[in-house]
Specification:
Blueprint: H1 2-9, H2 12-45, E1 53-60, E2 71-76, E3 82-86, E4 92-95, E5 101-108, E6 114-122, E7 126-133, E8 142-146, E9 160-163, H3 165-170, E10 188-189, E11 198-199, E12 207-211, E13 214-215, E14 244-250, E15 263-269
Parallel strand pairs: 1-7, 6-8, 12-15
Antiparallel strand pairs: 1-4, 2-3, 2-5, 5-6, 9-14, 10-11, 12-13, 14-15
């Protein structure tokens, strides 16, 4: 409708200019969408820091050559749930943002025996790096390796401090307030109650508080929104300390966390398992 109106009103030169402008706008939009897709793919390949935990690594043969298209499976010890992937053309694999706990990682490649690494622990805010080197043997052989001697998190410079569940539950806290746990982080100084204080030498209240990777910041005071003292000092929303699996403090956060210069404090809430407890 607009095109026909312009065709009857505008002279020929103006119509041509209008059509060229529309074509340029469409081309610009196509380039923008392509750029977004490229950036998204690079973000996946970069193995960015995770709010839960992650396992990544590289699979090579005895000569050190990369092994592509190898099947990699990470099995949760608590639930028996399998996470599956295949290695890239560079022999790399990655399991991002998986639940905390212990895993058994199994690598299967054509022409090589099955390679199994047991007791791989996934910790909040940490990437566990596995360097898998396959061996030549009979196809029925299974090579089992303990994860205790393997390298932890060699893919990032993030400085991470994690408090395990049993310590979170047992440490004495005034009012069972999780925000006080930040006082145990290296480089913290100040009054820890309510999330106040300085982390990593920055100004007070320069911490990015998260729960399972979701924003937990009071935009006005720049302190944790949950457990914040409300009317008569009573918090409007209270997170029970018993619901926390791990408390993680990153004092040199990556760009994906952002927001505050001091660091990122993330709580990972508990998830279920196959064993009854309580």
């Amino acid at each position: 409708m607009i095109f026909f109106v312009l065709q009857s009103v505008l002279p020929k030169v103006a119509r041509e200019y209008f059509l060229i402008s529309m074509k340029r706008g469409v081309d610009h939009m196509k380039r923008l969408v392509l750029a977004i897709l490229v950036v998204s793919s690079l973000a996946v390949a970069a193995n960015a820091q995770t709010f839960r935990g992650a396992i990544n690594g590289t699979v090579t043969d005895p000569s050190g050559a990369l092994v592509p298209n190898a099947a990699v499976k990470a099995t949760e010890s608590a639930t028996g749930i399998d996470h599956n992937t295949v290695t890239t053309s560079e022999g790399q694999f990655s399991f991002q943002d998986i639940p905390l706990g212990f895993y058994k990682v199994t690598v299967t490649a054509s022409g090589f025996p099955v390679y199994t690494v047991d007791k791989v622990e996934v910790v909040a805010g940490t990437i566990y790096t596995l360097a898998v080197k396959l061996s030549l043997a009979q196809s029925t052989t299974t090579v089992e390796v303990s994860a205790a001697a393997l390298t932890l998190d060699t893919t990032t410079q993030t400085q991470n401090m994690t408090i395990a569940s049993d310590v979170v539950q047992d440490v004495p806290l005034n009012g069972r307030d999780f925000t006080q746990l930040v006082a145990t982080a290296p480089g913290y100084g100040g009054y820890s109650v309510g999330g106040f204080g300085s982390l990593n030498g920055t100004r007070p209240n320069q911490m990015n508080w998260q729960i399972d990777g979701v924003d937990n910041n009071d935009f006005w005071h720049n302190i944790p929104a949950v457990n914040q003292g409300g009317v008569s000092g009573i918090a409007g929303v209270v997170l029970p300390i018993d619901s926390i699996e791990e408390f993680s403090s990153q004092t040199q956060s990556g760009a994906e966390a952002g927001r505050n210069a001091g660091g990122t404090v993330n709580l990972v809430t508990k998830s279920g398992g196959n064993t009854l407890h309580g």
